[in-house]
């Protein structure tokens, strides 16, 4: 169905793709793997006409093609669902699906019934039920994902690119997406699937192509490889264990943060927990269980019916995140691009932005020399890979963007760090680096709350785990009780059991 041969791409003097090959067959789910910065997105942008290759050929069903823009790629039967949706939130699902190519009647007027019927037909093909006449903003993330896929199929896409489609889905939603993908495979659609979750690759894909540093490393059948081999192909080395060794409990560890009587809504469950110096406290539970909301309520960023906070034994209540910041509590939010970074700004300003008070000289001036020195020191500590502190954040890989957020809080001398989905959208090599950094911080006396939807991450990194269900903590487990069976039992049944 599709063959990319010798694809090269240069941006100025920088070569980002070095003769990459990729072939995808009809009725196949083909995984495209590689670390952040390996060239996957650039290759897909070339395939869809968004950018032009410096060299190389694109062949579709034996016919050489060259796309000067995205519309030409669409006309050739290529559809792409980006990791960050391209939907207009205030338009309905139908309006989004037919935007700029609306169906009109013989009088030139919009034929809303025809568009509605066509959208319903496509969604029926996917075996999903999505409200068609409500604004996209009111749909769940999974429903928006299916609208994106339906939009691509409404263009008669025979080649479908899915870029990190499961990043924000629950396990049941992922299962349904895979069911849809299997149905599309039966219908002869060629699917290119990009994901950092290797377990998903083995569940849904037929073949795999691996890129590293803009080069084609190799391809293989899923049935003839394993996780260790894929990781070695992606990062160029074996990662024996991405999770650092846990230091074990400390009897003398002081309580740095204590939350009592946290109630997100009136009549809802009441939670309490403590965070000790040098530990990682995991927040686990199904999506919507109240993990992030509880942390945000503690910081004054989410309305709560009740919330009592003690910092180093002193009771306080934060009315806004700035007050939590002043008490040494920093947040790495779930969406680093939307909530954690100003991506059009350089690294320098993203790291300094909360800290300009200490750089002020007089009323109007900033000590740029000190700001630059602090930024470079913070970048070095967390190992940000970038040309320099003036590099724009949107030019960095996901892992390096996350490190910039971490560097900001180190620069601001935080002592309590809340990591919300710390490795979402990050490749296996960068994940291992983030884990090592987190353990290095706790060894220095920091305390960390880690909120994660990835159960292996919760188990591998947490010293203790608070399990959430329906808006509150139903169990706190540690030691041998930190296992998938115990955590999921509490998360799904709500059996209350606190282990100090």
Automatic annotation (TrEMBL):
UniProtKB keywords: ATP-binding, Cell membrane, Hydrolase, Membrane, Nucleotide-binding, Plasmid, Repeat, Sugar transport, Translocase, Transport
Compartments reported by the entry: Cell membrane
Every ABC transporter domain range: 2-238, 237-495
Keyword Cell division found: no
SUPFAM superfamilies: P-loop containing nucleoside triphosphate hydrolases (SSF52540)
Alphabetized GO MF terms: ATP binding; ATP hydrolysis activity
EC numbers on record: 3.6.3.17
Membrane topology: Peripheral membrane protein
Cellular compartments per GO CC: plasma membrane
The keyword ATP-binding is assigned to this record: yes
InterPro entries linked: AAA+_ATPase (IPR003593), ABC_carbohydrate_import_ATPase (IPR050107), ABC_transporter-like_ATP-bd (IPR003439), ABC_transporter-like_CS (IPR017871), P-loop_NTPase (IPR027417)
Name of the protein described by the UniProt record: Monosaccharide ABC transporter ATP-binding protein, CUT2 family
